TrEMBL record:
Gene3D superfamilies: Homeodomain-like, Tetracycline Repressor, domain 2. Keywords: DNA-binding. The keyword Cytoplasm does not apply. InterPro entries: Homeodomain-like_sf, HTH-type_TetR-like_transc_reg, HTH_TetR, KstR2_TetR_C, Tet_transcr_reg_TetR-rel_C_sf. This is TetR/AcrR family transcriptional regulator. It comes from the Bacteria. One of its GO terms (molecular function) is DNA-binding transcription factor activity. Residues 14-74 form the HTH tetR-type domain.
Amino acid sequence: MAYRETEKMRQRKAAVRQKITDCTYRCVAEGGFRNAKVTRIARMADVATGTIYRHFDSKEDLFAEIFRQATQHEVNKVADALAPPGDARERLERALRRFAERALEGPVMAWSLIAEPVDPKVEKERLTYRKAYADLFEQAIREGIEEGCIPDQNTRQSSTCLVGAVSESLVGPLSPSQTGQTTTDKTDNDPLVDTIIRFCIQGLTGTRR
């Protein structure tokens, strides 16, 4: 008679998998992917290291899953900032500000998502989510062109430029050598965020903010 997995067993396996991902997420948030060792994750999750590999084919697959979860959360925050009423330029400014401020408020995780050297599987996810940000910005730029608050331009190229400008501007400030891997005072970041937003909006519209 073939073995049939019971619902109780499926729920138990799902709970173990969730505990592993939760602990991995915490490790990355505290010290980046490089400090998320499988032995430490197993210890935190109170499972054997072999259990981790029963749920994930490799460490890279586990890290890719964490990257997807963390970045999708941030993409959703940017989407939320673009959703409220207002002209497209205002909404883009709000979304770009949300992107930058959230990164600077959680520099360790932000560095891990934006710039930390990672395995190819995780890097592939990084490229996917950079496109997700660009897609959101592109739609807003198109709406701005239709509204007349943003001049006509190549929306795809402009959207990828926005993602690149914000991300590159944050690499230095988020670097562990600069942050000491601690959270920072929001007021200390205001001038940097204002400069990033000013540069992006001026490049997008051709006018000073």
